[in-house]
Every structure is written in structure tokens, then in C-alpha cells.
Amino acid sequence: MLALPWIAIFLAAPTTSLFNLRWLGLALLTVGYGAALINGQLGIVATLPIALLALAAYAVSPQRKAYFRYLGHALYLILAIALCLHKLPGFQNVLVIDAQRFTADAQPFTMYLNLDKPLAGFWLLLVLPWIRPVHDLLRALKWGAACLLATASIGFATALLLGVVAWAPKLPSDSGIWLLNNLFLVTLTEEALFRGYIQGGLGRLLERHAHGATLALVIASLLFGLAHAGGGWQMIVLAGIAGLGYGLAFQRGGLLAAWLTHFGFNALHFFLFTYPLLELAKH
């Protein structure tokens, strides 16, 4: 039953209007999180932020007055930040990788299957259709592949120069769960927030500005870099560079292209380089 939120986020993912299954995604999301509540992965106190997300969804509806929509977006942003930082009680995220070193020189890596952070992405995908501009599938795949190649070339070259990773091809035993988690609960959530919502929203606000799209891309990339400040200044730089690549993919091929670029970059990092960073990487 706990797999249902994963299915829900897939169904809520970027699609054409013809295949938009948002209502089915919402139903599966409700059943999945209900099962988590029954099974003890979700405390009763966690229903409060979920209820507030529902209130925010009501408030941002185009039928509401402008000031009400602004309040709804403000409420969502507060909740999204708290959820992404795991600051709200009641979410018993499942530990699946516990301080594992994938190579002898790597920092230990811990991973949870989060129930809190993905809610920020679920909300965007289900509530705001404009974060998912419709693009031809072939165009999305083309730009996703092109931006992945460029982002990986620049990003990993920079990471090697900074001395935070090394060449380290590997196939860890936890690869399957890592791939599923990164595809559905990490990269899609982050791309919905940083590219779809922040970059897309700024682009809408600045659409009359001659360089509005570029400004939106740069600002979203800077914020994405700062969101990785916990890894040190090197991670801010590297995430900022990666954010530019994901943002370009979003501009040219929509959310699907950005999602594929981000997931591809993370997969290359996981399988081909030190993951997450070298033990001796200085912060």
C-alpha cells in the first residue's frame, strides 16, 4: 500500500491534457497516505500540514481573489520549506540505507524513503497545471538528452577539479531502491519545485521583461545551489551549475526534460563517481 504514493506521483507527472490522470493520482495519493497512517509511518499530527496543503490548494484556485491566491502561495511555500527540511512532526520516514560507504574513500551515505518532502511535489503536480508546460515527447527527450550531456560534462569536470569526487565505477547492491527513490521522490519533487514552480512562476511574472526567462533560470539555479549548502560551498557551486542545465532543459523541453536531465545526472554520479562525496572533501 505504501507504494501507492509513488504511483500517484507518476500519474501526476507531466503529461498532455489528453492523458492527464490527476484525479486518479489524487485518489491513489489519498489511499497511500491513509495506509501509511494506519501502518504507523504517518502520525496523526501529520494530518495538520496535509490539511493546510489542501487549504492552500483551495486558496490558489483561479476563481479566488488575488489577495487570497497570494496567501495560498505563501502558505504553500512555508509548508514546502518545512517539509523539504523534515521539520514537521508525524512523518516516520523509512530508513533503507544506513551510513553505507559505496567506496572506501567515500563519505557514508544514508537514505530514507521520505513521506514528507514528496508532498511538496505532489501538491504542485496536482494543483498547478502551469508548472507542466506541454511539449512534444520527442522534443522533451531530445532536450533532456542534450542538456544531460552538457550538464554532466561541465558538472563532473568541475567536481573533479574541486577534488570532491573521483572516478569510481560501481554497481552497489542498493542500486534498485536508490534508482526508484531518486526518480520519483527526489528528482521529480525537486524539479517540480525549483523548475516548474520557481523558475516557471518567475518566468510568468517577468514575461514582459526582455530577459525575463533568463532571469528566472538564473534565480532558480542560485536558489537550487543554496538549497545544497549543507554539503559545503563546493556543493553550492556544483548544484548551481547543475541547476542551470536543468533550467535550460525546462525552458526547451518542459518539466519532463528537466526531470530526465536531473535524474540522469544523479544516476551518472551514483554509478560512475564517488558517491556522495570523497571523505576528505573539505567544506
Automatic annotation (TrEMBL):
Q: Does the keyword Signal apply?
A: no
Q: Which GO terms describe its molecular function?
A: endopeptidase activity; metallopeptidase activity
Segments spanning the bilayer are: 42-60, 67-89, 109-131, 143-167, 179-198, 210-227, 233-250, 257-278
Looking up Pfam families in the UniProt record yields: Rce1-like
Q: Which UniProt keywords apply?
A: Hydrolase, Membrane, Metalloprotease, Protease, Transmembrane, Transmembrane helix
Q: Which residues form the CAAX prenyl protease 2/Lysostaphin resistance protein A-like domain?
A: 177-268
Q: Which GO terms describe its biological process?
A: CAAX-box protein maturation; proteolysis
| Name of this chain's protein | CPBP family intramembrane metalloprotease
User: What organism is listed for this UniProt entry?
Assistant: Chitinimonas arctica
